[in-house]
């Protein structure tokens, strides 16, 4: 048998040689999952022998990763905003950038929530990333999460049940805001915003993800524009829309907002890289 320290080195080496970022971290994540070792205990087990069956499974995981299959699909889950979410092929893998969107949504909700019902819409929910995170932190709110694809809704349902928020999250199939039974106080959306022509040039891991969860059309704004148009009848008059966007899309979205919601206030928050990422549209002004 091989000791754990050597196994981690054996996992890391081929991934590093293939220029996979954070190869050491990914090797440790594989060990944590297969051997059920918490991260803070890995080093305590460095000199322990690894069972042959576990070593075999780890080798198979590395082979999949060398084909550039995303680690989240291989592991079957991804941590997001402190929440462990089930992910699977057919849904977008949660990104750190979207945590900024959730933070802004929490702030906007707490500023607006009063006694009575408070409804948040999460169109294009995917695996339920936004809906579950908001439901956990806003027990007084109700989240209506929609998706066009049944595969995504099945994964989202598992995450809703796993985190015990089924009483606060309603999943509906349909196009963006169309399935909403009543207007929402807040719309929080991470919709596909990558330009169609760019997708095939992105890193190999992204090619494993569903194109419909990435492709925003020629300018990346197809779904965002449709959402804004739908919001005219699906958002309360004093509501707000929060969007994750590409920095280059801020200006054209502001033009679109000016046409649909005259008088609305638009603000932008930057992500950890300093890029304009979360756009807030406050329609309470006068439309």
CATH topology of the largest domain: Rossmann fold
The CATH homologous superfamily of the largest domain is termed Vaccinia Virus protein VP39
Strands of the largest sheet, in order across it?
Answer: 7-6-5-8-9-11-10
Total separate domains: 2
Assembly annotation: single chain
Shape: elongated
Secondary-structure element series: EHHEHHEEHEHEHEEHHEHEE
Low-confidence stretches: none
The helix-and-strand class reads alpha/beta
CATH-level-2 architecture of the largest domain: 3-Layer(aba) Sandwich
User: Cα distance, first to last residue?
Assistant: 70 Å
What does the secondary structure layout of this molecule look like, with pairings?
Blueprint: E1 2-3, H1 4-17, H2 23-35, E2 49-50, H3 52-66, H4 71-75, E3 77-80, E4 83-86, H5 97-112, E5 119-123, H6 129-137, E6 142-147, H7 150-162, E7 169-173, E8 184-189, H8 196-199, H9 222-234, E9 235-244, H10 250-260, E10 265-270, E11 276-282
Parallel strand pairs: 5-6, 5-8, 6-7, 8-9
Antiparallel strand pairs: 1-2, 3-4, 9-11, 10-11
Protein model, in words:
With 287 residues, the chain is an alpha/beta fold. The protein folds into 2 domains: 2-67; 78-282, 3-Layer(aba) Sandwich (Rossmann fold). It has 10 helices and 11 strands. The chain has helices at residues 4-17, 23-35, 52-66, 71-75, 97-112, 129-137, 150-162, 196-199, 222-234, 250-260, and strands at 2-3, 49-50, 77-80, 83-86, 119-123, 142-147, 169-173, 184-189, 235-244, 265-270, 276-282. The protein has a 7-stranded mixed beta sheet, with helices on both faces. It has a two-stranded antiparallel ribbon with strand order 1-2. α9 packs parallel to α10 (250-260). The longest helix has 16 residues, at 97-112. The radius of gyration is 21 Å and the shape is elongated.
């Amino acid at each position: 048998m091989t000791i754990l320290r050597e196994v981690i080195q054996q996992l890391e080496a081929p991934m590093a040689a293939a220029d996979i970022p954070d190869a050491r971290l990914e090797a440790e994540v594989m060990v944590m999952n297969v051997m059920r070792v918490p991260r803070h205990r890995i080093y305590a087990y460095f000199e322990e022998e690894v069972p042959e069956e576990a070593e075999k499974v780890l080798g198979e995981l590395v082979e999949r990763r060398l084909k550039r299959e995303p680690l989240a699909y291989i592991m079957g889950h991804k941590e997001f905003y402190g929440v462990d979410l089930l992910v699977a092929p057919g849904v977008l893998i949660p990104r750190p950038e979207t945590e900024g969107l959730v933070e802004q949504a929490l702030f906007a909700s707490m500023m607006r929530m009063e006694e009575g019902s408070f409804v948040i819409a999460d169109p294009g929910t995917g695996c339920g990333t936004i809906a579950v995170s908001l439901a956990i932190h806003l027990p007084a709110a109700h989240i209506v999460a929609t998706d066009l694809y049944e595969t995504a809704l099945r994964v989202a349902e598992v995450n809703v049940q796993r985190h015990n928020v089924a009483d606060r999250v309603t999943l509906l199939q349909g196009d963006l805001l169309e399935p909403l039974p009543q207007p929402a106080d807040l719309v929080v959306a991470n919709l596909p915003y990558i330009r169609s022509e760019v997708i095939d040039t992105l890193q190999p891991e992204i090619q494993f993800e569903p194109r419909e969860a990435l492709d925003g059309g020629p300018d990346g704004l197809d779904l965002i524009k449709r959402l804004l148009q739908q919001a005219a009848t699906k958002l309360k008059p004093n509501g707000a829309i929060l969007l994750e966007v590409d920095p280059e899309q801020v200006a054209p979205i502001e033009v679109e907002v000016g046409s649909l919601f005259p008088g609305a206030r638009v603000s932008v928050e930057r992500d950890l890289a300093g890029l304009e990422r979360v756009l807030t549209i406050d329609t309470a002004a006068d439309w």
